[in-house]
Amino acid sequence: DVCLSSTRVAMEFYHAARDAILLYEVVVPVKLERKLGGINQVAVLMHNDCLYLSQEILGFAFEYRTDFPSSMKEHAVFADLAPRFQLLAEDILQRQVHLVIYNLKEAIDSADGFQNTHQMQQFESAKFSIDQVVFILEKVHIIWEPLLLPSTYRKSMCTVLESVFSRIARDILLIDDMAAEETLQHLGRIKNCSAVALLSRRWKIS
C-alpha cells in the first residue's frame, strides 16, 4: 500500500509501522513481566520473537525502498530499531540464565556446604540438594532445547553447568576435616556430578 500511495499517505503508513514496532517493545514486556520473571516457555518464545524482529526490521526498508515514492526513499528508516530488539532478546535470555543459576544456587545452599554428611540428617540434605539440581537441569533442558537456536541452547546450558560444577567442587574443597565415611560419600557425589555431565550428551550440549 505504501508503494502505491501518495507521499502523504505513504508517510502515514511508514510512521504507523514504526509506531507498531515501538508499541510491541513497550507493551509486551510489561504485559508478560510476571512470566519473564520465571523459568518458562513464554520467556524463551519472547526471546525468539525479539530476535526474529531484529532481523526482519533490518530488511524492511531494503525490501521495499526501490518501490517507495521518491520523496520517502531517504526518510524511511527502520534499521535504528533493530539493535533495540537484539538487546531485548539478549536481556531476556540472560535473565533466564541468571534465574536458573540462582535456583541452582539455592538448591546447593540447602546442602550446607556438604559438611558432616556422615550424619544422617546432613547426608539426606546433601542428597536432596543434588536431586534438586538434577531436577532443575532436566526442567531447563525440556523448556530450552526445543525452542532456542542450537548454538544459543548449547552456550546457555554450558554456562549453567559450569556454574553448578564449580560451586559443588568449591564447597567440597572447602571442607576442612572429612571423616572416612564422609570421604566415600563425597566420592559418590562426585560420581553423581559426572553422571550429570554425561546427561549433557542427551541434552545435546556436548
From TrEMBL:
One Pfam family named in its UniProt record: ZW10_C
Residues of the ZW10 C-terminal helical domain: 129-184
GO CC annotation: cytoplasm; RZZ complex
GO biological process, one term: mitotic spindle assembly checkpoint signaling
Domain of life: Eukaryota
Domain (Centromere/kinetochore protein zw10 C-terminal): residue spans on this chain: 1-105
InterPro entries: Zw10/DSL1_C_sf, ZW10_C, ZW10_C_2
Entry protein name: Centromere/kinetochore protein zw12
Naturally occurring in which organism (per UniProt): Trifolium pratense (Red clover)
Organism placement in taxonomy: Eukaryota, Viridiplantae, Streptophyta, Embryophyta, Tracheophyta
